[in-house]
Request: fold
Amino acid sequence: MYWYKGKLIESQTLELDIHDPGLIFGATVFTTVRVYGSSLDSSLTNWVAHCDRLLFSLQSFGWREPNWHLVRQGAEILAGSFPVLRITLFADGREWITGRLLPPDLIAKQKHGITTTLALSNFYRSLPSHKTGNYLSAWLAKTHAQQLNSQEAILIDAAENWLETTTGNLWGWQNGSWWTPPLTEGILPGIVRSQLIKYLPTVHESPWNAELVRGFEAIAYTNSVVEIIPIHTVVQPTGSLQYNPYHPSFLQIRELF
Reply:
């Protein structure tokens, strides 16, 4: 079931006009919310922050705002059945909300970490400050990584600086401090990223060049659904880099949740 234009619909299909810009161009914005305790008002759910990010994109693009009451109503109904909601808004103000379960292997990944692969530099997200429906590059990068037996891909820029994973923001631990790429590099301003910058005692926002990434003791990525997942291996053309997925520094981030 899903919520669309003020109605709960029991179906696995969504009917769209063949000329709909959301279908043809990916002209939508979305946010993915993890609902804690089945409550949109939980401080961990961060409902207001997710709505604010959607509103920022709508205002940036000059799109129509939705009926926020209907958005909230649909989210509350689906939150009774699903811990993860994807809220999609169309340019004309339509809302579309779907729900899903947490990944079945999430706990194992959080505990033991994953392998990632550096993506090709031509795989980059368009309009990186916004979560738009055009996620093709990130999807292609992750699909390619999975074909190489990695669980994620790290997007890079033309100078081969590491930017973010296909689904989250990067964090690294070095010399007693946390490091994360700056927004000026062209990355998504993640909800959890913003929280952690306020929460953690010391965060350095600096480009992740080859010298910096070699010096990290531990790295991970975060997003609103998975919280934090360590990365133990990064496969790159010049050889793999290894990191400690059990580093005690991760406790600082896990305490937030």
